[in-house]
Here is the input.
Amino acid sequence: MPGPPRRPVHLKILEGNRGHQSQKILNKGPDWHDSFGPCPKYLKGDARRLWKKLTPQLAAKNLAAQVYRPALEGLCRNYARALQAEAVLDEKGLTMAFQKSEDGTTYEQQRPEVSIAQKSWQAVKAFAAEFGLTPAAVSKIQMPTKKERSLADRAKERANAFRSG
Here is the structure.
C-alpha cells in the first residue's frame, strides 16, 4: 500500500478536522465486547480448542466484536480441517495408486487431502492475518491493550477536567 500508514481514528479525532473533511469518513468500527461469546456447538476437537485458546487473547487486544465472530469461526474450522488432512497424509502418504478401468494399468496420483491441506492452510493464514496473528500482521496492527485507556479517552478526560476546573 503506497503512502504513509493509516492513523488510528482516535488520533484523527484529537488532531481535529485539519483537512476539513466530512466527519462521516471517520469510521469508529464495530461495537466492542469483552468476549466473542460461547464457542459454537458445531466446532469440535481441534477447532474448539483453538477457539478457547484465541478468544481470550483477541479480547485482550480489543478485537472481540460480534461482527468478527464468523471470521474467527472460519479460522478455527480451517485449522481443524488442515490438521485432519495432514493426519491422513501422515498415515497414508502424499500419493495413492490409481487404476484405469480400460487397460488395467496403475499410476500414482496425488491424494485429495494434499490440496485440502494446502487450501485450508492458506485460509488459516488469511484469517490469522485479519486478526494480526501472523508475524507480518503483528507489526501493522496497533491497538491499545484492554488494561490501558486509549489516547482519545485520556484526552477527553483532561479536556473535561480542564473545563470543570
Summary: The chain has one domain: 32-160. The longest strand covers residues 95-99.
